[in-house]
Amino acid sequence: MNKLRVSWFSSAIIYHIFIDRFAGYDPDKNWEKPVFLGGNLKGITARADYLSDLGVNTLWISPFCVTDAYHGYHIKDFFKPDPHFGTLEDVRCLLDEFHKRNIRIILDFVPNHCSVNHPFFQSAINDRNSKYRKWFYIDRWSGNYVTFLHYKELPKFNLDNQEARSYIIGAAKYWLSIGFDGLRLDHVVGPSHRFWKVFSEEMKSCCKDTVLIGEAWLEDVRFSHLKTLGIKNKYLHWIKGIKPQEIQLEYMNEFDGVLDFFFRYRITEFIAWKKEYKDYLNKLKHSMAHHYAKFPAEYYLPSFIDNHDMNRFMFDAGLDKKKLRYAIAFQFTLPQPPILYYGTETGLSHTKPVLFHVPFSDLQARQPMPWQNLDYEMIDFVKQQITRRKKRKT
After folding, report:
1. Comparing C-alpha atoms, which of 295, 293, 113 is closest to residue 190?
2. Where along the chain do the CATH 3.20.20.80 domains lie?
3. Is 215 tagged catalytic?
4. Is residue 250 among the annotated active site residues?
């Protein structure tokens, strides 16, 4: 499928927005609790001037469908916006406003699982005769069900079931028909490759310029989780040791590309964690050149230095903004599309680490955008890097 390269994405400069914490939120609410702060779609639209002035030309926004959770990944209805985030009209206004500014929008889409409170799962778990029983992996005798990793509140869809598959594909096509320019696909290692081949063909038939970018990430995966995954030779991968590059390569003929976790690990290792970080530039360049050589040129590997599931770069760098500037400057010279996580352009950080075994520690990387305390010198530096990249691309 990568032969149908989406050409516009090669020039993408992506800004990653976590809706509930970006704009429109209540500053008096406690961001260290897993609750809705009130960030919404109207808030993003109201910041269109800021984002346009920054110079980005693509937004990636977190899920906004009806959900149990502030982050949007516990979905109860794949076809409707959650009132916390806004209305369908707000979605259309968002798309119109940014498209007028030649800024595309990629939606974070979650196909692998749903909320335990999704009505289809409730029907399946409470009625042995429900048609939705086959939409999930429910043990006939015990009633136990397969989940997203070990999270009991997130039952895993059986996407090899034709009706379940059609439901998820229909939802994705619906949002593309509304006007989204692409999908960031959550936890692509969960569904089978059979599903992804059909999914990708359906999306491309809907709109050939739609970009599909997968999150092929296996951090903190345990042996007990393997039964929930759809990757090839998963038990052999486990025995040999899971390598990010090998997993990223699996999706070469199914997506336009995958998020480049390898780069994030290397930029942290060679810049954030090193005292004399400039001495490691050649090692970093060599590591990335060797990495890119493993992939065909038409396969996208969007780069990022932090995101909503891990420490912000500034935290790993010991709050050293010189390191942050150095990392961003290097990232923006790479041949792959760069992703800027909201707040990184102003040096947003935190005081406690994000740890997989500590519940809700990821809230640290999801602090509200500090609109009243922006570092304009840092923002100007980021603008310069974006401007230089655009000039190199023309």
Report:
1. 113
2. 2-111+160-393
3. yes
4. no
